[in-house]
What does this fold into?
Amino acid sequence: MIFTLPEDLSATAPPEQRGVARDQVRLLVARGNGTEHARFADLARFLDPGDLVVVNTSATLAAAVDGVRTDGREVVAHFSTALDDGRWLVEVRPRVDATGPVPDAHAGERITLPVGVALTLLEPHGRLWRAELAVEGGVEAYLVRHGRPITYSYVRGHWPMSAYQTVFAHDPGSAEMPSAGRPFTASLVTELITAGIGVAPITLHTGVSSLEEGEPPLAERYRVPAATARLVNLTKASGGRIVAVGTTVTRALETVAHVDGWVASGSGWTDLVLGPRRPARVVDGLITGWHAPGASHLLLLEAVAGPALVAGAYREALDEGYLWHEFGDSCLLLPDQAQSIVHAAA
It folds into this structure.
């Protein structure tokens, strides 16, 4: 899907700074019979008793840390993914006017971070670097003391970590906020449950989203608990819908989905890429933000809802001035269940 995103449709600050409560951002509901415009707080109105909403409990890290290269140039290290051997995948960007990573980083380079900590680049990993550093108390504790949220050029100002956490945040590990869950509030979750709509957790830690422009997503660490797998299977057997909150939840659930749509518990690393060759098997609907042109996540949306429904939703969002990115508006994709079955079998 090709489109141009006007600059004025980028959300430049949290909605609260615009006088809009978290759950009052706009919600575009796209179904086979058309679209409807609402507020996120209206979510329960579009779901049915017996549906299951699956959320991501990953909490956002203060993953951006200032550094200085050996030649004195100032940079920012984005800590993307913690690896099993204690090393990290990091992206190194210029400190000012960054539109991408520094082009001349090299293996063996040492970048000095706050309080004299040395970050050593070991080998390239796409546009990221496998890197190591030794800090007392561990890297995550170091990020709490010396890091800040990763932000990109469309964001104006600096906002506290609380602005980058969802109500479900419990397990630290995401370089960037699993932002599809940001509009949820405790009162909205209560409303869903009292309406007979279930809520179940998974965990998937996201890497940096700067890879989205035409590049496949990184492998990411995930966990689907046994209790969630049981709820998913029971919901499907009872005729309810599985509604994933974000591409992260979709990726985790589809990683543990068998070809017949039955889901098992599981944990580890997933490199699953959903798209035309691998449509969704278990996810029936998707709550999502609005993704930039060229983002690989657009193929994931199509794998769940089909290209026509996704393209129609994006055309409507552009026409109606919906806001993009992590502080923007939301979309609920609800393809007809019969259409979903045909699409999954393709």
In short: The helical segments are 139-146, 186-194, 226-237, 247-255, 297-305, 307-319, 337-345. The chain has a mean pLDDT of 94. The first helix runs from residue 139 to 146.
